Amino acid sequence: MYNANTHIYKDIIIIGGGPIGIACALQCKAHGYSYSILEKGALTNSLYNYPLNMTFFSTSEKLEINNIPFISNNPKPNRDEALEYYRRVAASNNLNIQLYEEVIDIKKSNSTFTVSTSKNSYTANQVIVATGFYDIPKLLNVPGERLSKVSHYYKEAHPYTMQHVIVVGASNSAVDAALEIWRKGGHVTMVIRGEDIGERVKYWVRPDIINRIKEGSITAYYNSEIKTIEDDTVTINTPEGELSLKNDYVIALTGYQPNFKLLNTIGVSFSEDENRIPTYNSDTMETNIEGLYLAGVICGGMETHKWFIENSRIHAKIIIDHINRKL
Fold it and tell me: Which residues contact 92 (CB under 8 A, 6 or more apart)?
């Protein structure tokens, strides 16, 4: 419960406790700024919610922050190795991180920000928004989407053993889910809006899914969409017409989007096209609100494939360098 009587002053507030938020905290500490990371969930909450067996596209050195070595057993680390790495970075550097504390409002008066959370109120001269995009799924907006058998997240294959499962999408997450469920004994059908498996699918996985489809182990309907979801069936529109498929579960992995609510609240402007890219200076990462910075995936708006850990970890240094110059 928000306690309006608790006020905490920091030089910098960092919203988001993922890898980029941690990188920002390391820069704050290195330059002597008081700071707090405010994270509404677990440490690196998005990574925590990834599938259990997920393997990163990037190699371990590209996931390192602040030149702290990331040692992996494999050329491309998995989810558990990443969680261990970022947890050790945060713990060994004694970072000031407030977990399970959700930011509910940001206001600016003159040159000072007030950040209200589910537990406290913070005052800061600068705010860095380093939130990800994994919390709000892109919905199918079809009848039956709210049925309990429908999920927009995938964790592991075991619950889908011997079940008829429809996987919607053709991205990395959809392909990984389809292959894992099939290998654990599920009957997998993919419903794909486009005409092929996504070009950005991991290069060592893409041939696997294509071959499983070609041999008939996994059924795929291209240029197709779900029309309705029923208790025991799913109706899809295909180029050959409407089909009704036997179904136990639907896993709709059609992507996610950032939560723009906080940025809207404080007055950050966005591009007028469907990508909704927030306004910021790429040389400083400062938004149209002086003292409010963006770092990481949030910078891409709806283009969630544009920024990753490996190409946005530099944002932390850019931001703190700019704050140093201002002060």
Answer: none
